Amino acid sequence: MSKKVRVRFAPSPTGGLHLGGVRTVLYNYLFAKKYGGDFLVRIEDTDQSRYVAGAEEYIFETLKWCGLEPDESVQHGGEYGPYRQSERKASYRQYAEKLVNDGHAYYAFDTTEELEKMRHDLKSAENHSPQYDHTVRLKMRNSLTLSPEEVNTLLKLETRHVIRIKMPDHENISFIDMIRGEVHFDSSLVDDKVLLKADGMPTYHLAVVVDDYLMKISHAFRGEEWLPSAPVHILLWKYLFGLENMPKWAHFPLILGPNGKLSKRDGAKFGFPVFAMNWTDPKTNELTEGFKEKGFLPEAFINLLALLGWNDGTEQEIFSKEELIQKFSMERVHSAGAKFDYEKAKWFNHEWIKQSGVGGLESGVKTLLVQNDITVNNDALLHKVIELVKDRCVLLSDFVNQSSFFFKAPETLDVDAVKPKWNDDKKNFFIAYSEKLQSVGEWNALALENSFKELAVEKAIKPGELQLPFRIMLVGGKFGPPVFNIAELLGKEETTARINKAINLFV
RNA sequence: GGCCCGUUCGUCUAAGGGUUAGGACACCACCCUUUCACGGUGGUGAUACGAGUUCGAAUCUCGUACGGGCUACCA
Question: ipTM score of the complex?
Fold first, then answer.
């Protein structure tokens, strides 16, 4: 057995990839990279009825945006493919049949109606959902109750059937979870899960064990919702490949929404994204908004996700991917679920925007401006604008409001903010200032401010009272960086043009 | 109902028997700024409850309560 760490992310292509899913990939990825191991992606698509067109491509696009792609040589270069379970169909049945032959599983011929009847008849106040377990299996139609001849006949006639695991009576099943420590189960309380479906496809339970063995997975990490089925998987390992070959397990805590497990609906309901990237359901045309489109930087997204359930024990909160790889440890992953807080998520993004260099922001900002019909034909100006404005942008999309007026004169001005205190003296000041600007020697913020103040003193008006009108003239509203910096970047021609145009609008 | 996991400020969390229970987000106040932010300083605010072990418990044990997950021929 290879000593190398091999972990996998195993999504089912049923549409979208939410926070919990991305965090699962992240932790898998970080763990693999930390120990110099392999990270691969296996697609769990054994339920063809739930497969959504485009969902698999979407998953890989998301991983790409997040920077969590599997190494090409691992994903496609190894001898462990294929990576789509539907393409591995042929190999599963033999394992299921081996289990039957060894007495650990059995054929079950019950029809859907018979199963429904059983559940209905056995349902009571003490038992909300009756299971197909050791107490009922001898009352059903399966190879445990039928004679070998009958079973053979049914199989020869290709009667629809499944293969179920035969859970042992009162066996204590336990394993060590890397996050939670020792976890115990009583096998009598677990039902006889279907391993091979009537269509010949394996269920997740069989597939995950067989694939993990065949792909030599050394560590298997997944969400906490899988904890209850762990005893089935452990038994399968014991019966099929030996407990000593079983991967080490860890079950991540759930990411919670305002009420319970975070769901797709929470996003629409509470106004925050729950998917990494926009996802449009091809069947319903319903759009679920993504962090990417909302204006998040992938670095910030990864960072905030990593800290939702893990920390390095210090007070550091901002981590690059490289730092996360270096500092991540499974032992420090929490065992309790974490409620997602959008405000904190935005804070992470703000921090990342502030510490990003102009170069890292440039292309994103540019496409955003272009999308909003702003023409950017001066990259040098764009650089200066980004530098000047980025501290006040929480989301990438904030760059639109914060910087479009540098490239395009505001269409409407917030005249109401100026009108009440506007008078002829102020009007005359701006007429004079506009003229004075023509002879300013060096066009920079400091010079502009000095000449502005000189003129104000000359006209006996407090400079402070003139700054807001000036801002409204240039920007259109009460926001943005310091006015004189704006004027500097706008240039002489544009600044005077905006002043002259606005002067008569405040009456 | 049964099984499993969990429980420190509103939220994310630190503190692995001895701390005035620390930090961050959010909130409030003040400072900076005659725009909006950034930034700075300070503040409100938590060990679910009850027993036990111990000189000493947020920390270990048990019980209770509460929360979450699972209970499909879905993953």
Answer: 0.96
Residue A408 reports pLDDT greater than 70: yes
- Segment A362-366 shows an average pLDDT of 95
Residue A383's identity, in one-letter code, is H
Structure tokens given for A219:
């560590």
A427 annotated active-site: no
Q: How far apart are CA A499 and CA A501, in angstroms?
A: 5
Q: Any atom of strand B under 7 A from CB of A254?
A: yes
pTM of the model: 0.95
In terms of DSSP bridges, do strands A194-196 and A255-256 run parallel, antiparallel, or are they unpaired? unpaired
For the record, the structure tokens of A32 come out as: 């693999």
Cis peptide upstream of residue A130 (ω within 30 degrees of 0) = no
Band the pLDDT of A261: cuts 50, 70, 90: confident
- Name the residue with tokens 């270096």: A326
Write the CB contacts of A215 (distance below 8 Å, at least 6 apart in sequence): A6, A8, A40, A42, A80
Task: Specify the higher pLDDT residue, A417 or A150.
Answer: A150
Cα dihedral A7→A13→A15→A16 (10° resolution):
20
CA A331 to C1' B56, in angstroms, rounded, equals: 29
